[in-house]
Amino acid sequence: MRRLLSSYPVVITSVFSASLLSAPSVSAEPDDVVYVTAADDVHYEPHGYGALRQSSATKGSAALAETPQFVSVIRRDQLDTLPAESLSKALRYSAGVASEKFGGFGNSIDFSKMRGFDADYYLDSLRVAGNSGSWGAQIDSWLLESVEAVHGPSSALYGQGGAGGVINMQSRLPRAEESHQIQFQSGNYDNNALRFDSTGALNEDETWLYRMTGSAASSGSQIENTKQSRYLIAPSITWQPLNNLSWTVAGVYQHDPYVGYYNTLPAAALGLLPSPYGSLDRHRNYSNPDHEKSGRTQQSITSLVSWQVSYSLTLKQNLRYADVKTHIRRDFTRGFVQDNRLLTAVYQDSPSRARTLAAHNQLIYKTLTGPVSHEILTGFDLQTGKLDKDWSGSQTVTFDPYGSHYRPQFTPHMTSSTSTGQTYRRYGVYMQDHLRWQQWSLILSGRYDDSSLKTTNNLSGTTQNSDTSVYSHRAGLTYTFTSPNNPSPE
Asked: Among the four residues 128, 194, 218, 474, which has the most C-beta atoms within 10 Å?
């Protein structure tokens, strides 16, 4: 029956792209020294749907066949083909993921469940944090190179989180290979979008790379008087003075003047249950359009440093500051009263802001002990920030959805309110050894986390403090059977 509630826009897309492969740079390093380049990046596999490797479940590149955890990998080609206008739509066909928690009405909110639990979101291995009970940051799928959904508990590497798993997104980053793309999209419900992406080298020796990505999109929906729109720009630049050293700085500014329609109606109102008054028109908007207007603005700056000191030793640091402002103004229906004719509704007004800083430092060391190879990871990550949220709600109002005025006709009178401020700090230290011998793979991981949270009630002036520390560990053993359909992980 869900098909009756969702919109199916007819979309016409036009894409213009140009690609030029640059000549490979000549390395002055000895023949026995190998450095990782863009072509070796597990997230940068520019063509095809299938993936053989992942990096999120182990925080280091590993074959899917030797990863003791189920990982769904969605690459750029698949994002373009679906087409995935949001992360939720990109995850529609991933087993064990219920990605559209609020249905398919809009593309502005990503709340996914994995194995029955809310998923945790990461971008470039840095956690995407936000206010509980509010609409947090949403990473636009046009900005992504790939998405990896790691199923099952992942505390041994990621720390505090849900038991369902984590969703780790990888940003589109500057590349030496020149590529330019412009995409126009138009469809029913006034669905219009313009997107572009351009990357390449800024100089002949390819020590400076750039990428510029952006989009402007707006659309209505099957519900009257509803709208969602977004404008974003994401410039980034990479400096790589050496073959084994790179530093990328990326910025994102995203403004959502309207985040779409996310209301509900009782099953009886839609004709799914018997009602003496019949079913309601599914295309009508039973909200008050004078009150309903929710929006969001988010901006971030990210630093990504990678230094391959030698074939055996690699150092990485990821750092991001983000500022996300949301304002939820809506009225939502709750249910029928008086012989299932009158509907009840509640008005809500809730501005919030999240200012967060996340850092992830990692050391990767490769060595041998006899016939056994080791890939040893040690890491330290830090998350800190300030979360502010106000909430106001009205008393329950009633209206007749079967009448000529089928919307709430009341001026909202807010009778209850809350105002809270939270500051938090979390840090974690982890270590992992990935041992390989012939077709055997053993992963041993351990992590220690410490967190503190201070919550202030701005109305009463009272505060609450909580401190938590915990140790997590895991072990996973796999054996890879080689066959034409399952090649060796090496």
From this structure: 128
